[in-house]
Structures are given as C-alpha cells and as structure tokens.
Amino acid sequence: MYAVNDAEHDARATSPFSEDSDSLFDEPQIAMRTAPPIPGLFVAPIRLPLELANDIVQQCMNLYFDGRDVNQIMLFGRTASEHNQNMGSGLPTFLITLLHWLAEMLRDHLPEKVHEMLFPPKDAPQRARQAILNLYHPGEGISPHVDLLKRFDDGIIGVSFGSGCVMNFERVQCQEELFGEAGPLDRNHWDLYLEERSVLVLSEDARYDWTHGIDGKQKDFVSGGIDGQGEPDWIDRGTRLSITFRWLLPGADIVGGPDP
Ligand SMILES: O=C(O)CCC(=O)C(=O)O
C-alpha cells in the first residue's frame, strides 16, 4: 500500500517499516548511488559544507527536537523571490540561509525551468513555502507516499543530514502488480542511497507518478565506491535529519479553511 500523503505525521506514525524489516529470507536489493532514470528526479553532485550542515542540525535539535517526544516538525513561510531576504519569511533564519545556498548551488545542476520553479524570479507572485523536518533514528522510516496532490504544488527539495539512508521509489500505477502476482517489476522500483548532506529534487513524474518512502532499517545495502563500481556493502544508519521544502497550493496555506 502507499499513501497520498496528507498528514505526513501519519506516514511516520503508521509506517509498516517502523522496525527493522530485514529477515533472513529477504534478498537484499542493492541501492544505487546515482539518480535513477525517473523524469524530474535530480540528485545534485554537491554536498552541503560540513560546517553549514552541523550548524543547521544543531539549531533544529535545540529548537525543535531535544527533550521532546516528536519526530516531525512543519514550518511555513512566504516568499517572493530568491533575490530578496523573503526567501521564506516566517521561516527561521538558518532555513533561509539554507535556501539561499541551495538556490546558488543548484543553479548549475538543474534544468533552468526546474530551478526557476524552486526559486522563482523577483517579479513572480508571492507563494507559501513549507519546510518539514523529519528526525529518524536507526530502524525508523516513512511509508511510501505521494505528497498530497491538492495541498502541495510541483517542486520538492529534500536535504539529508547526519546519516545517509536508502529512499525507495515505486511507480504509482504498478503498486498493485508489485504487491500481487506479477513478480518483481524492478524497473518500476528504484532504491537510491541518499548520502549525508546530499540534495534531492523531485519534480514532474518523480513528484506525481512515483511514491517515495524509506524502509525502517538499521543498515542499507549500497553499491560500492563513490562511482558505484565496487562491491556492494552494508552501511549502518545513524540518526538522520531531513529537511524538505515544498510549495503549498493557493488556499492550502489557510488554516481552518475547507480541507483542500
Ligand atoms: O526524510 C525524507 O527525506 C523524506 C520525507 C518525506 O517524504 C515527507 O516528509 O513527506
């Protein structure tokens, strides 16, 4: 089953993978280190600088997670452009700094129209941006889901901190076949290892026609070496923080209004 993800906390709370799902009889899939050929999915060949990443993790832990029994936080901001300080006014300064860094660094690694969708030009209408922070301890994951179609627009940026993990992608139309008799339709399923401090972008097909999710595992089986050419190896999961930026659709930012 997959969820079209309305309340993301449901995907965390009801994850069928909230515990290590490896068994003696599972054939471990080898996750790739480079972006699978899903239209609209990009893994930029850049990593956040360690100092910036450490600062962001520390601020998130201090402000939202330390001493509290929560694993997910949602924040909202309004933005007009990447060129002014309102990259998401309402968001904390460290997230604005992150957005500015992303806007600059992704420019050379995304098609122009995708970059413009994520970081609109100066004269574009104001939009509402959501930042969702997810904290995963080893063994925890998130159910496969498509972000809610009526709440979020196209263009999602995901940044990993503290640990890598494998993200699974499944083509939506093949869910039933995957869980039925049809056998492994592996080209409708990709496992991608998200490196710590890496940046993932989901747009177009990758955002609408594929689910994304994270199995609740203690370790991941990943193709070898940086270039993926070596022998595959197990990589232990540490505590991972992810920050995901999404656009709210018009009206979806109004609290207390009709359910979009
Ligand atoms: O942790 C991640 O990278 C994914 C988060 C996600 O898919 C969500 O919050 O909807």
UniProtKB/TrEMBL annotation:
One of its GO terms (biological process) is fatty acid metabolic process. GO terms for molecular function: 2-oxoglutarate-dependent dioxygenase activity. GO terms for cellular component: mitochondrial matrix. Residues 1-23 are annotated as: Disordered. Residues 1-12 have a biased composition (Basic and acidic residues). InterPro entries: AlkB-like (IPR027450), AlkB-like_sf (IPR037151), ALKBH7-like (IPR032870), Oxoglu/Fe-dep_dioxygenase_dom (IPR005123). Residues 127-249 form the Fe2OG dioxygenase domain. This is Fe2OG dioxygenase domain-containing protein. It comes from Suillus plorans.
